[in-house]
Amino acid sequence: MTELLASLGRTSLASFERLGRGSLFFCAVVARLGTLLPRLELVLAQVWAVGVRSLVIIVVSGAFVGMVLALQGYNTLVTFGAAESLGVVVAKSLTRELGPVLAALLFAGRAGSALTAEIGLMRATEQLSALEMMAIDPLSRVVAPRFVAGIIALPLLAAIFTAVGIVGGYLCGVGLLGVDDGAFWSQMQSHVALGADIGNGVVVKSIIFGLVVTWIALFEGYDAIPTSEGVAAATTRTVVNSSLAVLGLDFVLTGLMFN
Amino acid sequence: MSTEALVQIRGVSYARGARAIFEAIDLEIPRGKITAILGPSGGGKTTLLRLIGGQLTPASGQVMIFGRDVNTLSTPALYAARKRMGMLFQSGALLTDLDVFDNVAFPLREHTTLSESMIRSVVLMKLEVVGLRAARHLFPRELSGGMARRVALARAIVLDPEMIMYDEPFAGQDPISMGILVRLIRELNETLGLTSIIVSHDVTETASIADQMYLIAGGKVVGHGSSAELLASQQAGVAQFMHGNPDGPMPFHYPGAPYLDDLLNPTST
Question: In this structure, is residue B144 part of a structural domain?
């Protein structure tokens, strides 16, 4: 029993200690954001790496999610004679929840894991040490551009995911299931609000998710044990922790925004 | 501090967890000379370079470099000091997303306002010194271990440092690469007036170019002198390392319970 308690205590202390280090890391990165102003090309290169290179998975997933939403929504709505509202169901679901959340989960799996592996391998192969010895701050030169890029890229990816999802829902609902074309768009236009739905969902949620996922991914890479095993474990932790953080935060944000 | 010493290590102790790496060691690196730090693997030689570079902080003692205690320097002052030193990492530590040219140009682009044409000239000159001017378009993944270290050497000297630290420059090299590296280190030291610190366990190669050598074992300096003095030393630990004798004060086995106890005790892990 004592052993169990001691083990629990050790695990808890280690978790808090890690959270503390993660917070200090976050503050250190934020403090260096000003150094990026004269070097925006570093940020753009990373937006390309984490954003543009994630486009395929975002577009394909968005299309399928939109089509599945239309199929499921139509089956329910048609029971109540409200099939014309399909556009609203698809658009509200995507803008408020599925767009930002699924884009963030895919971003964590595609770009987050890549960031962790890249930074972790840079540490394992002494590239970060080499930068320090060349009098170059790795947090300013390597971490900060990726951090900003993640915050910029995810809202853009979520917007693309949502737009493609709506088009997918349209193709499935109007093209396949025979929902009226005009009703699909006009209902969506009158019920989806720019600020409440798109602003809160696609913009605010995605910025927060982008910040959290990128922070976790970069910290895990920077803090990884510099071995192949350590980098692999850090990459796994990035996907698990950032996915859980996105889902937990989504509940909190939804509660604050829509209730 | 002696005017001749570029680096002076005074009573430095350093521990990793419960394991002491150094216990109050003293070393002096004279300006313009090649100083070799020898010792068995895992003895803390690389740690010593990181202490000199200010990447690690000793538990006690002082690391004086360019006349100042490296651990009391502010971050800008520390970075200014690092611009005056180069370091060749054991793995080369080249940036894998940049080709050879951009790796060597990297410190120039970060720290200077030189035009691209000027940077090109400087980089090509440095690559010519290490014999890899024609390999400037290759990426690190396309280089052999020896070539990667030569590129890293070109990068380390591109800002014309006063001091350069070599971490195991000869480890895992074929005889030709090793010979090239030995020659390069000697020539660079003479032609550029550098101060060099070589951390190694390759006795023959290091002894052939070092002006003075320190032998570190068990967290202490166990030998110090010229190559000839250490090679001729009768001190048990020094003689064992310099001549590669299996028996001596440096044990082959990692410290632990007696072999017989381990074999006969089934509960032992």
Answer: no
So what's the ipTM on this one? Answer: 0.85
A residues 121..150 contacting B (CB < 8 A): 121, 125-127, 129-130, 132-137, 141
Residue type present at position A215: W
CA pair distance A220, A25, nearest whole angstrom: 10
B119 assigned to some structural domain:
no
Distance in angstroms (rounded) separating the CA atoms of residues A37 and A211: 18
Separation between Cα atoms, residue A257 and residue A200, nearest integer Å: 7
Pairing of strands B34-38, B220-225: unpaired
In angstroms, the CA B269 to CA B258 distance is 13
Instruction: Please determine, for residue A259, whether its predicted confidence score (pLDDT) is greater than 80.
Output: no
* Residue B259 lies inside a defined structural domain of this protein: yes
Range of the domain at B49: 1-84+195-269
B16, B56, B94: which to substitute to probe chain A, counting the most A Cβ within 10 Å?
Answer: B94
- Does residue B265 fall inside a structural domain? yes
Contact B14, B220 (CB under 8 A): no
pLDDT of chain B, 269 residues: tens digit per residue: 444 788 999 999 998 888 888 888 999 999 989 999 988 877 788 899 999 999 999 999 999 998 889 989 999 999 999 999 999 998 889 999 999 999 999 999 999 999 999 999 999 999 998 889 999 999 999 998 888 988 999 999 999 899 999 998 888 778 887 888 888 888 888 888 889 999 988 888 888 889 999 988 888 888 888 888 888 877 777 778 777 777 777 776 777 788 888 888 877 66
| Tally of domains in chain B | 1
Pairing assessment for the beta strands B34-38 and B5-16 based on DSSP bridges: unpaired
Closest CA to A147 of A50, A19, A226: A50
Considering only CB atoms, which chain B residues are within 8 Å of A129? 50, 55, 89, 93
Instruction: Name the strand (E) or helix (H) holding A240.
Output: helix A228-258
**pTM of the shown model:** 0.87
B26, burial (CB in 10 Å: exposed 0-12, middle 13-18, buried 19+): middle
Single-letter amino acid code for the residue at A9 = G
Q: Which amino acid is at A19?
A: L
CATH of the domain at B31: 3.40.50.300
